[in-house]
Amino acid sequence: MAVTGVVPIRTNGIKTPDDEKLDTHEVGMIRSKFSDALRSRTIRIVTRRGPEFYVHEELLCRESEKFNRQLRGRFKEAQTGEILDCDECPELLSMFFEYLYRESSLHDEKICHTYEIRVLARLYCLAERLCAKSFQDAVFWKFSQLFYGKYSVQHFEVFQTLLTLHAELPERKGGDFPMRQILLWWAASRLGHLKKLPEFGDMLQNHYPSLGCQLLMLAGDGPSSPKPSFSSVKPKPHFEKDIKFIKDAAEDHQPEL
């Protein structure tokens, strides 16, 4: 089954160079970073679960060091333009590809449901595997809106999210990942509540003993223990200058009444 990861680019009715002939000056103005990226070759990405995605190479390589190495290094993917047997989750990849092409939910501070915290954790781990720093920063900003905002996060959601991060994120020298640090603090300061969860004791004792040790060491003064503080900046829309140019061009081309 083939699924395209690209999102149609809306131009508000503006004709592109494919629609009509433009003079050299006009073409030069339209040829911006985003449109240049859309002229790069399309990469076929086939996941192990079956779905396929077609994404422009330039967008992939700008955002992900892993894709950049695969497609511009001495690997067969660079020659074939195909990444086969990708073992990443198709649903998560689809969210990443959406982020490449347009303003996604990661640019919006609105939270629809607190279960989004688990989705954000998995996207954060995906960004780490793809070496996609800007994407990871955008995910963390969205996470901070949920965790530091007015939303009430359920204990079960936080515990399951912490298990995901503990299992999927590697150990890192020079300080842990901000998202995992925040969740560790939250869980350690609320051990009394977490102990009431049926699966809490079994998971820590039989599956994640090292996580249990970390929580006990961080327990400290409970909810009054100081909250970790990390700065997060709202991600800017991709190719902001290009978007402004398209909007300005749309206004300039409005028909006179």
TrEMBL record:
Source organism superkingdom: Eukaryota
SUPFAM superfamilies for the chain: POZ domain
Domain BTB positions: 41-109
Protein name: BTB domain-containing protein
The organism's taxonomic lineage, starting at the top: Eukaryota, Fungi, Dikarya, Ascomycota, Pezizomycotina
